[in-house]
Amino acid sequence: MLAQETGARLHLAHISTKISVELLRQAKGKGARVTAEVTPHHLLLTEEAVRGYNTNLKVNPPLRTEEDRQALITALADGTIDAIATDHAPWARHEKEVEFDVAPFGMVGLETALAAIWTKLVMPGELSAQRAIEALSTRPCQIVGTQGGRILEGARADFVIFNPDQIWEVDPNNFASKGKNTPFAGWKLQGRVIETVARGKVVYRWEK
Ligand SMILES: [Zn+2]
Q1: Ligand 1: centre distance to CA 87 (Å)
Q2: Which one of 41, 80, 122, 176 is most buried, counting C-beta atoms within 10 A?
């Protein structure tokens, strides 16, 4: 409402509930300059996952209900939610190995985002491949006003090489990140980033 009133541009991070999606849809319908993003964990997990008090599932905003999750998927598919952002929040093991109540909020997500979205939303047909890739690359770049997210002659070479057939299991011990606090440990995923190129340099290559 404030964005619409003032004409200001507003980006909403980590949209997680059905009511937020409804407000966002209304605001966009009235022409407010609003964009929004959702995380992979809010798209793929619900509060049910927290039953075991695994501190790697403690995140802010918290995991929600299945009804919320379905609303997020629909909104992402129809473009009401613009982008997917991981909210990558690494913690050292000892910081998460405490009682649930006192554990810090946050999960890592960078190394699983594309494969998890691919396996759980694109492959079952809930989200198109085009929309998934756009939400992870082109659209975020448009929102923050950078040149990335597209492959063009003369443009900065920032891209990943993705093998959609590769099946692998998430083992945090194999992460490049020192942060191992993933909610997806043990998940079997299909689709694997084989290589990451940033500013024209290979910065990551998957070694089987
Ligand atoms: Zn955050």
Answers
A1: 5
A2: 41
Residue 141 pairs in a beta bridge with: none
Q: How far is the CA of 31 from the centre of ligand 1 (A)?
A: 26
Query: Ligand 1: distance of its center to the CA of 14 in Å?
Result: 7
Annotated catalytic sites, by residue? 87
Strand locations in 92-187, DSSP E? 159-169
Q: How many residues make up the chain in this entry? A: 208
Which option is the CATH number for 2-205: 1.10.10.10, 3.40.80.10, 3.10.560.10, 3.20.20.140? 3.20.20.140
CA 86 / ligand 1 centre spacing (Å): 8
Joined together, the tokens standing for residue 126 give 């809930």
- State the distance from the centre of ligand 1 to the C-alpha of 169, rounded, in angstroms: 26
What gap in Å lies between CA 126 and CA 121, rounded to an integer? 5
Q: In a structure prediction context, what are the per-residue pLDDT tens digits for the chain, which is 208 residues long?
A: 899 999 999 999 999 999 999 999 999 999 999 999 999 999 999 999 999 999 999 999 999 999 999 999 999 999 999 999 999 999 999 999 999 999 999 999 999 999 999 999 999 999 999 999 999 999 999 999 988 778 889 888 999 999 999 999 999 999 989 999 999 999 999 999 999 999 999 999 998 7
